[in-house]
Each structure stands twice: as C-alpha cells, then as structure tokens.
Amino acid sequence: MTAPIAHFNGKLLPLDQISISPLDRGFIFGDGVYEVIPVYDGVALRAREHFERLQRSMDEIQLANPHTVDEWMKITQELLRHHPGDQAVYIQVTRGAPQKRDHVIPKGLQPTVFMMSNPMSTPSREAVENGVACVTSRDFRWEKCHVKSTSLLGNVLARQLSVEAGATETILFRDGKLTEASSSNVFVVKDGTVYAPPRDNLILMGITYDLVMQLARDGAVKLEQRHVSEQEVRDADEIWLSSSTKEVLAVTKLDGKPVGTGKPGPAFKRMHALYQEYKAKLAKARPVTA
Ligand SMILES: Cc1ncc(COP(=O)(O)O)c(C=O)c1O
C-alpha cells in the first residue's frame, strides 16, 4: 500500500518520506501548536475559524505564522485533493529545529509545518441515540488551556482515565468548577437552559463550542455562559460534549451514575438536529472545499 500524501514545509509528500530532526522543538519541548479541521465530503467546516484560532495560539507562544489564513486555506485544498470523503485535517506548526537543545526561544528559526489528513468517523448512530459514558477528574493541566498546544501530556493522562474506565471522555473540574474534557468542551442543561463555562484561559475555545452558541442563538435555545459548579454538573438534566470530530454528543452516564433520565434529553436532540441541518446547508452552499 502506498503511504498517504501529507504536507511538509511547503511540499506534498508521501507520509513515509517525511522525516523531522530530533532537535525539532516540537519533539524536544512540545513547542508547537496545532489544529484539527473536520471535512464533510470535501467541504471543510469552519476552516477560516480554525486558522484564525491557529493564529491566536501562535501569538500566545510568540511564534511567527509562516502563512496567511488564505494561504492556509489553499494548502488545505491542495492536500484534500488527495483525500476525498469525510476527513479530519491535522495541522501542526512547531518552532523548528535549532542547532542545539536550549529552553531559550531562538531567533529567526524556520517553523516546521506538518499537515496530514485522515478519514473521519463521526459518532456512531448508537452513540447519538444512547449517549456515552464519562468519568471525572481534577483538572491537573496548566493555566494556558486556551492555547491549542501540542504539549498534550495533561490531556493524554486525563483521557487515559476514561480509557481505563471504558468511558468516552474525562470531564474535568478545577477548584470545584467545570472546565472542559480531555479533548472536548462540555455543556450542561438544567430546567431547559444550557450552561457553558466561560471562554477563559482554562478551556480551549472550541470552534464547535462557538457553533453551538450560534445555533442556540439562531434556534431560540436558551444558553448562558457562566461558571458551572461540580455539583451542578452532577445534578444536571443533560450533559453534552462538543468537538470538531464528536460534533455534539450526549453524556448519559457520569462516574457510573445516569445523567438525568439516563437517555439523551430533549435539548440535546434539538441541538443535534440543528447541527445536522447546519452541516447539510453548508454542503449545498459550498460544494467545493472552502
Ligand atoms: C481540550 C479540548 N477542548 C475542546 C476541544 C474542542 O474544540 P473544537 O470544537 O475546536 O474541536 C478540543 C478539541 O480537540 C480539545 O482538545
């Protein structure tokens, strides 16, 4: 089998012909940022917003962006010519490979750009209809969770807790308040109102989180952004996860106990329908990758 085509520093190459220096600061320090863009049959969902977030992440870590948003969009289109169907495009930019290992940020280093695309599987019908199980943990990550950094050890260890419990995600609490999950944002529903933790440095500002906000506004769903206590999460009628690849997904079991009725609730069903409608409209409006 031939290796899939990937992008490396301006070139399209088979994945197995790409090699990266062991001195690359991405490898040595996790000194880089990334994005994951969902693509539905060739149409990239909110690609511009993903590249704008990439810019914000790069600004936060003082890394000069090698491309404009329009250039990124073009590079993505070129890569997607080799990857038809539903895809998740992965983009990573690291600070590059200096001559020696040193914490100090070197000046004038060429960043390393790597992109690949993999078939994306959205949540199964079973997961949408029955919801998924989650566990909880203290949020033991750093205080710059708004940066989409490749330094993901905290997230990896958090996710592993759910893997070991046979669950889909680990929902995190910091100082008694909900932050997010290891690779998703989290919403809770109580008495018909949706609550979302505020956009601050303790969560990643999800592109799907923003889309849920927009869909709630347009669909007259009551949504409030405010801190949510651990107790409120445990007493919620509904809990949802959101991410580019999970879309919106109901959590129906938390730490082994049913959430609400133990079935995806009415607010989830409404938001899931709004999300699917949005995707369907997008495919009609933009038949080619945008
Ligand atoms: C920690 C974390 N929070 C939230 C999200 C959801 O972000 P998005 O909706 O942009 O995929 C992700 C996505 O990977 C994530 O890693």
Order of helices and strands: EEHEEHHEEHEHEEEEHEHEEEH
Number of helices: 8
Helical proportion, percent range: 25-40%
Anisotropy-based shape:
globular
- Output the radius of gyration: 19 Å
The residue ranges in which pLDDT falls below 50 over 5 or more consecutive positions are none
Total count of strands: 15
Give the N-terminus to C-terminus distance in angstroms. Answer: 30 Å
Q: Overall mean pLDDT score?
A: 96
Report the β-strand fraction as a percent range. 25-35%
Helix/strand/pairing category: alpha+beta
Largest sheet: 9 strands, mixed
| Bound small-molecule species | pyridoxal-5'-phosphate
Describe this structure in words.
The chain has 290 residues and is α+β, with helices and mostly antiparallel strands. Helices cover 30% and strands 28% of the residues. It contains eight helices and 15 strands. It has helices at residues 25-29, 47-60, 69-80, 125-130, 153-164, 207-218, 230-234, 266-285; strands spanning 5-8, 11-14, 32-40, 43-44, 87-94, 112-119, 132-138, 169-174, 177-181, 185-190, 193-196, 223-225, 238-243, 247-254, 257-258. Strands 7, 8, 9, 10, 11, 12, 13, 14 and 15 form a nine-stranded mixed beta sheet that branches. A six-stranded antiparallel beta sheet has the order 2-1-6-5-3-4, with helices on both faces. Helix 2 crosses helix 3 (69-80) and helix 6 crosses helix 8 (266-285). The chain is globular, with a radius of gyration of 19 Å. The relative contact order is 0.15. Bound molecules: pyridoxal-5'-phosphate. Residues 36, 155, 180, 183-185, 204, 206-209, 242-244 line the site of pyridoxal-5'-phosphate.
